[in-house]
Amino acid sequence: MSGQPRKRGLWLLFFAIGPGVLGLAADNDAGGMLSYAVTGAAHHLLWFIVGLLFMAPITYVVQELALRVAFATGKPYGAVIQERLGRHWSRINGVVLHSLNLVILVTEFLGMAMGENLIGIPWTLAVISAFAIVLMVTSWSRYQSVERVLLLISALNLVFIPAALLLHPSAQAWRLAFQGGMTAPIGFLMLSLAGNAMAPWMIYWQQNAVWAGRVRTLKAGRADIVMGVIAQIVMAAVVLTIGALTPIHGQVAQNPILWIAGNDGRWVGDLFGLGIFNAGFLAACTISLSSAWMVRESWSPGIHARQELPTRGGLFLLHLLTLAIAAAAALTVIVPSGTLALWAQALGALWMPISLITLGLVARDRRTMGLMAIRWKRQLGLAAIIVLFIGLGILALIAS
């Protein structure tokens, strides 16, 4: 009889997996993983691992707050912002976040193309095929169908683990990886790391995906977020370690995948390239959907059908144009991919205080949230997180 409750618990755990896991897996995107590799190559691994662990509860607090807003309001996030803060702020916020997401999407197509290019696919064909795949998946009619497919695909992120196990670093490589104290350049890298752990688009994704999906209770939603945070931190730490243990020969920021393949061998490079392609694909789908939700809710009146993807109907042209611009930029960009990845994450971190203030104003409002409005202790906690992101921005500014 004891086996029955255990099986039931496993099934409940499986069905709890949803937008929390998917959003946090997608946040370990191609740009994020490339930036982790570049960050790890700077050594100071202890600082970055501690930073990741410090960001874990912060990520949970923010995503759980978005979950609460979804359950309390029963509306998409953009509609909630319009009701509480007005149409003008909703539109400004939507435009800024859409622009930030466009920069991130460029890194996703770069990562996907680099992974394809590593196995011999010409660069132009690699970018075009990446664009076509993302457009096809994000143009389906039902959100739940897309969520299930993307959750299955997210399991491929585990390929970073065998890539790390194949490194066989020397004792000297381990010592070098953990050397170094807090230096000026580390400030910018920490800002980028924070921006990768918690990005503004994730708030929209968590709230809207819960609204559109099948998360039935706060308990299930919280379990989903916890699993997502754990998976995010583990995979980020693995990629940081790969970057830190790879011998420093050549310019890592120019093309991190080729740098790893050249220094660690073809097997490690191929696995890393597959992981980057998968991370880019997963993130390009979720971020573009999140961006479409932002624009639709900010500019289109009324609340749309829960199950209908935001890329359907009149907004399909904007969605197509957004992906096309990002893909075209990936074909022509002259900035080293690693550098662009770091800046894409850092820009998101710089906007996080605004996103968190917006979320806090909604979550503390009793007219909007009812009994689920956050009390003063949670408000102080959120204020501390806002101060942290502002402090990281100032630290990065001083470092530059």
TrEMBL record:
Keyword Membrane attached: yes
Entry keyword Transmembrane helix: yes
Pfam families: Nramp (PF01566)
GO cellular component: membrane
GO molecular function: metal ion transmembrane transporter activity
Stretches that traverse the bilayer: 41-62, 92-113, 119-137, 149-170, 182-204, 225-248, 271-295, 315-334, 340-359, 380-399
Source domain of life: Bacteria
InterPro entries noted in UniProt: NRAMP_fam
UniProt keyword annotations, A-Z: Membrane, Transmembrane, Transmembrane helix
Localization terms from the record: Membrane
Membrane topology: Multi-pass membrane protein
Main location: membrane
Protein name, entry field: Divalent metal cation transporter
Species of the source: Sulfobacillus acidophilus
